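Project outcomes to date are best conveyed with an example. Our students and postdoctoral researchers have been running inverse folding experiments weekly, and each run begins with a structure described purely in tokens. The record below, which covers 65 residues, was selected by the lab manager from last quarter's runs and is presented without edits.
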């Protein structure tokens, strides 16, 4: 097979486009994964907070009367 400059240029161009598209896809997947991880970490942190004691509404309980 005889390669001409035009065919080599076309081959390199298409290979470059595939590489850029693949890199963009993996980069975007990493970004999506990082975003999901941050979101889950926030949810987990909310659930790990200690429960606050109920606020006193001014009512007396049996122990106080």
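After processing, the design step wrote out the following sequence:
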């Amino acid at each position: 097979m005889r390669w001409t400059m035009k065919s080599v240029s076309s081959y390199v161009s298409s290979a470059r486009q595939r590489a850029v598209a693949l890199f963009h896809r993996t980069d975007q997947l990493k970004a999506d994964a990082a975003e999901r991880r941050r979101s889950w970490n926030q949810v987990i942190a909310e659930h790990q907070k200690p429960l606050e004691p109920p606020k006193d509404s001014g009512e007396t309980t049996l122990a106080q009367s």
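Residues 5-48 form the longest helix (44 residues). The two ends are 101 Å apart (CA to CA). The training component of this project remains on track.
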